[in-house]
Amino acid sequence: MTHAVLPDTETRSEPGWLRRNKLAIAPWVFLIPALIFFAIYVVIPIFESLWLSLYQWNGLYDAEGNSTAVWVGFENYVKLWDDPNFWTSLRNNIAWLILYMLAVPLGLFIALFLNQTVTGMRFYKSMFFFPFVISQVVVGLIFGWFYNPDFGVVGTVWKAMFCEETTNILGNTTFVCERPVPDILSSEQWATYGIIAAGLWPQIAYCMILYLTGLNNVAADQIEAARLDGAKGWKMLWYVVVPQLKPATFIAVVVTVIGALRSFDMIAIMTQGGPFGSTNVLSHYMFEVAISEYGERYGYGSSVATVLFGIMLFFISYFLWRMYQDEKGGR
Amino acid sequence: MFPRPIEKSGPTAKAAYQAFLPVALIMWLLPLLAIFLTSIRSAADINSGNVFGWPSEFALIANYTAVFTQSAAAQYMINSVLITVPTVIISVALACLAGYALAIYRFRVALPLFFLFVAGNFIPFQILMVPVRDMSVQTGLYDTIAGQFLFHAAFQTGFCTLFMRNFIKALPFDLVESARIEGVAEWRIFWYVVLPLVRPAIAALAVLIFTFVWNDFFWANVLTQGESAKPITAGVRALNGQFVNNWHLVSAASLLAAIPPVVCFFLMQRHFIAGLTLGAVK
After folding, report:
1. Which of A126, A251, A254 sits opposite B269 (nearest CB)?
2. Residue A5 pLDDT > 60
3. What is the DSSP letter of B147?
4. Domain architecture of chain B: domains with CATH
């Protein structure tokens, strides 16, 4: 190491106590800036939100600068229990969680399809990853237009299949359809699934890239040995390849669960929770009650956020426990 | 390698595979292609429902110019840059320091602190929303650029520290130890020994955080109000309201918003992917 011979006068001039405890103090000096930032913007607000969920507050301060929040105990949670919009949001969150998981196997299959070495493969791999790089706002707009019954792809394809183009007496083109063009995002029944399908598009791309990276590390000799033993197709995939992809699968599941529970952008762009609250999820409903719709209801919003936080905490604890097991195994 | 390399399956299979690849790609990117085609059409095509057909006229330049002249898109783009760049610098710098501390020193709370950063990275934004918004209003940071990048920098520090700590932990510890034996001061070890070795991690984090923050939509809604501090993602939504059913202009604006992260990805692909796998899948 060439760096190790650098002249170093600082340590010699340090006072004795500092010098003796150098290794105990140094980590804190390195940590303090990050810890201060993280505490102010992340750790303390979590506890403030939990606390605020026991208050009723419109976000205003009186003339002396004191908060006008009123303590209501668990009233917000009691209201939540009787709030049909809350239950719809929770049900949709579960639908997101379950259906979003499809991104993991679908990502694996696209990765397996692309795991070849023909010319131009790098280009194809990066193009397949493309949907993940663009903002969810843009994905939401793209699919909002895609589903549009008048101007979009779904409308156009449907008209081509089921409708007859006629010209009315005024000379305008109209369509006479056997079945009306579906307006997916205006249907209480289908809108949520339409948004989830749109959300799957970038998420599949993410899982695909995780698996493509994982597939690079699959031990070729084990595959060959299994092949000599007569394994092929599904059996090979399930018993030989998938076990070796475990780290990639773990991360794919983590990011998909978090992504499903965090879904906000697409809903805000495509339906804003409508029609009639049928596509709301907790993250969007919280935003809606806290800021936009009926003025500011910080306390009630915080109680919705607390429920969502509780659900996430369940998954986060599991992930941390898994990471802890790995840490114990390592250095 | 699995599945079996296509070269071993004979020339027919290989040709079929290579012919199918572009078809699969077009199907996969169909929504994107459709919106690109829409963005270069004229209003007449949109109204007559011409989605897949040949554009009756090419309005590429006209549409993209219209986005800038008829809306505050230029302002939104500048705001996005002013928010993302300081975020990247602050969060990566803080994470280098914190990651070094958590990877190199053995002290009792190192692991709990590390898990604190990891957990903070996964929590829902909504649990932070009300206090952060209230704090921003109180300190005058609401509806400013600084209010947004300070928050993003703090939040992304969690992810950056997770990544940086794992990266430094994988470096050979002997380097640090031999420097200590030579009597090199701790901050010099950080600066001259470790920092040059973590450059790939810095690159990976920089592109990832740039993309994450550029694509942020939630905080743009929580922390801004007017046009002066809105980033392009929130701006595109505002444009969507302004250009109702002018899908050619909405598409052009959406694609403009997507360009910087896409360029970033294609320039730094290797780093980007290394970052996304959280350093756990090499």
Report:
1. A126
2. no
3. H
4. 6-66 (no CATH), 69-276 (1.10.3720.10)
With contacts defined as CB-CB under 8 Å, which chain B residues touch A158?
Answer: none
For chain A, the average pLDDT equals 86
Of B1, B125, B258, the CB nearest to A220: B1
Instruction: Report whether the peptide linkage leading into residue A27 is cis, meaning its omega lies within 30 degrees of zero.
Output: no
Q: How far apart are the first and last CA of chain B?
A: 16
Note whether A4 contacts B29, CB cutoff 8 Å: no
pLDDT band at B1 (very low <50, low <70, confident <90, very high): low
Rounded to the nearest angstrom, the minimum Cα separation between A188 and chain B is 22
Nearest to B32 among A142, A209, A327 (CB): A142
What are the structural domains of chain A? 3-52 (no CATH), 85-147+183-329 (1.10.3720.10)
> Which residue in A has a C-alpha nearest to residue B24's C-alpha?
A128
Residue A308 and residue B127 in contact, taking contact as beta carbons nearer than 8 Å = yes
Q: Which residues of B touch A282 (CB under 8 A)?
A: 126
Closest A-chain CA to B107: A24
Cα distance from A106 to chain B (closest Cα, Å)? 12
Question: What does DSSP assign to residue A182?
Answer: P
For the stretch A100-143, pLDDT in tens is: 999 999 999 999 999 888 888 888 988 999 899 888 998 998 89
SS3 B10: helix
Please report which residue ranges of B105-139 form alpha helices under DSSP H: 110-122, 126-139
Q: Do B233 and A135 touch (CB under 8 A)?
A: yes
Q: Which of A54, A114, A141, A172 is the best substitution to test chain B (most B C-beta atoms within 10 A)?
A: A141
Looking at this predicted complex, what is its ipTM? 0.89
pLDDT at B217 over 90: yes
Long-range contacts of A269-275 (CB under 8 A, 24+ apart): A269/A136, A269/A137, A269/A140, A269/A141, A269/A144, A269/B217, A269/B237, A269/B240, A270/A140, A270/A143, A270/A144, A270/A185, A270/A191, A270/A194, A270/A195, A270/A198, A271/A185, A271/A191, A271/A195, A274/A191, A275/A186, A275/A187, A275/A188, A275/A191
* Among A residues 86-105, those touching chain B with beta carbons less than 8 Å apart: none
